[in-house]
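Case 385 in the screening queue. Each case pairs one protein sequence with one candidate compound; here the compound is flavin-adenine dinucleotide. For every case the pipeline is the same: read the inputs, emit a complex structure as tokens, and attach any notable structural observations.

Predict complex for case 385.
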Amino acid sequence: MKRVVVVGAGLAGLRSVEALRARGFGGGITLVGQERHRPYDRPPLSKAVLLGDVDSSFVDSDLAELEVDFRPGVTATSLRPGVVVTSEGELGYDGLVIATGADPVRLPGDGPQHVLRTLDDALELRALLTPDARVVVIGAGWIGAEVAGAARRAGCAVTVIEAGAAPLAQAVGAEIGARTQGWYDGIDLRLGTLVGSVDEGGVRLAGGEFVPADVVVTGVGVRPAVEWLADADLDLHNGVVTDEHLRTSMPGVVAVGDCAAWWSRRFGARLRVEHWDTALSAPDVAAATLLGQEAVYDPVPYFWSEQFGHMLQYAGHHQAGSRLLYRGEPGGKWSACWLTADDALAAVLAVDRPRDLVQGRRIIGDGQRLDTERLVDPGVSLRDC
Ligand code: FAD
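Case 385 output:
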């Protein structure tokens, strides 16, 4: 293999370049990214960048040393076998990494609507979070909660509009989400409320009420950024479909990060997660696969979120309706544990209990069964349950 093209210059794209070099690939690598920035981390955008603690989050990596032909500001527009068509011409490849991430969903309406995906989004939004600005955040999911916290800390008058019965309801269920509701102190949190449209000067609710706003931030989720692949002879279903080696249905093409839906041997399911840890670790497997080396991607997925001074960490993969047990009470430090039918740990959400996360992730990996009576005692280490 002589030439590899990596499309998408986010973390997964950059790590793919690094992994190819680390595994001894000496051929040409072209890294195509539609943003004008060099690769950066996104988690700080809704945390340190929005809070004004830092101005950027560039990944510490030497592109010159990696001998990569980096093309910022270039968009891939279509794919056919052996050729990526871009906004600046065609690029032939022997191996291709698809790492185009995900795009935020926007709501109907002609009013100004901010999303938070890029560094430019974060800097633009930060400038608007001024004392007493009326900020409406649509969606109390991971991003919405972090934005609401930053806006409140900046002294804004914050309204959060959430369709579900509790914050985080869509991600972890309303029962757990309700445990975070008390954190929204000083915020007008409207649950079970649907937005009809974002209009000039505010938000029109589905019920007809108009909520005035100086700034509207939409945080209702993302979609895999695969529109450019619509006409390619490639399996797409909730992202780019891959096997456990991250191989797509097109020869010589792998996919990684937020855009990839891979087959998990461990969970017997196709997973697509929007987690930094996956963008960090999957590329090594994708690089091995491209180079004809044996590797399987089968992690216990992990992510974290920082909300209202709390650290939330999740590991595993749970099904809706799984048995749920708690360690600790809301108001303090607590964890939620999802169990399989035979009392193995399927997933854990640890709130300010990092040890539960670390031990839980290992227990999930080992498939260990737990003594549920000990599990609900937060004084007993998870590893001793
Ligand atoms: P991306 O980071 O989206 O990178 C993809 C790149 O490809 C982008 O630069 C995009 O412009 C480019 N691209 C797209 N289409 C094309 C095209 N056609 N041609 C060329 N280039 C293209 N995860 C956690 O685990 N914990 C957190 O606390 C956390 N916080 C987050 C906060 C924010 C604000 C955001 C946005 C995400 C957060 N995440 C968090 C998720 C995490 O950042 C993502 O999972 C990770 O960035 C995915 O990396 P990626 O490289 O797959 O995709």
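Case 385 observations:
- Residues 276-290 form the longest helix (15 residues).
- The mean pLDDT is 96.
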